[in-house]
Amino acid sequence: MFRKTSSAEREVLWNGNYLRVWSANFMIFFSFMLLTPLLPLYLSESFGADKHTIGVVLSGYTIAVMLVRPFSGYLVDSFSRRKVLLVTYFLFFLCFIGYPLAGTLWLFALVRTLHGLPFGATTVANTTVAIDVLHPARRAEGIGYYGLSNNVATALSPMLALALYEWTGSFELLFVLAIAVAGSGYVINRGLKLKPREPVPTTKKLSLDRFILVKALGMGVSFACLSFSYGVISTYIALYAKEELGLLSGSGVFFLLIALGLIVSRLYGGRSLRQGRVLHNATLGLLVSLVGYLLFAGVHNYWGFFGAALIIGLGNGHMFPAFQTMFINLGGSQKRGTANSTMLVSWDVGMGLGVFLGGVVAEYTTFYHAFWMAWAVNALGVLLYFVYVRGFYRREVGSDN
Length: 401
Fold this sequence. Notes:
Layout: H1 7-10, H2 16-35, H3 39-47, H4 51-78, H5 81-101, H6 105-132, H7 139-168, H8 171-189, H9 217-244, H10 250-274, H11 278-298, H12 302-331, H13 336-364, H14 367-396
Helix pairs in contact: 2-6, 2-7, 2-8, 3-4, 4-6, 4-13, 5-6, 5-8, 6-13, 7-10, 7-12, 9-10, 9-13, 9-14, 10-12, 11-12, 11-14, 12-13, 13-14
């Protein structure tokens, strides 16, 4: 007897449009992360900036990203998504040219801050188009694989940047490479062929739900708690590894293990998402991540350090695409951009608070207190998920989990 083929298996996942936006997303994060780890050194050597000034200069783009994302969701829902994507992607590429041309510290700060606007808008637009070009039966699975483009780029790009700088000592080479990669992503996306879609009905008066998916705010709070803990760990991991464990290159291995965990869990979890078991993946990811943060906060040796990285990666690899699918399902086909921007704003807010409060706690107490705070806030997000989010999602969307 031949096994009956499901509709999800018959539909092509890696279609031409999906391959384009997947590759373009990889190039967004590869080009951006190529510069990120070395910008503090560049500012110090080129402009003589101190640590406080470097922090101020580099934080501007984060604020710009958070400000633009709600409007980005509105734009991609209200206008041609292909046009919005191409315009924002081109501006994202153009900003890279400004880095080597900035002759003063404050001009560099302006370019860096302005770069956050097209970065935030492009990531929303590209993700929304990726969801559009996926067949509904493969959408949840495709979202999971789409996230791999971020993970692989953010794991490989900083390593390449550090190696190139060590070999050549040239910041200019890195700027040129970032410009070339971002430009290639723009060219790839110009080949997109999207079907016409029904525009969002317009009203004379704009309301909050055109910019934020209001009914997903509770889920957004839970998601922000999860990103808070990642913000603390990812920002202060290098200092902790060097000062407390004596690991000079430990942060690179830490992020590689996180990336490995993300890749493994997304490949493994793709089948569950294909079967529509979104809440199953979210629940599993949350619990696994919680164990990872507990291990990191409670075990201060090499085993705790590297073991936590792999476990956190495994958990986040299940959790992130599941939450994104939940946001998208709540938004429906007409508000995918708004749903995406709401999810990303939630992540940004949590990350930002984690970076700020983690630094304050570590400065006035110890790293260990900061990491226990990260675990506690993560646990709060998990509790909110079980108490409210899971039941709310079942009522709104329906689930067989």
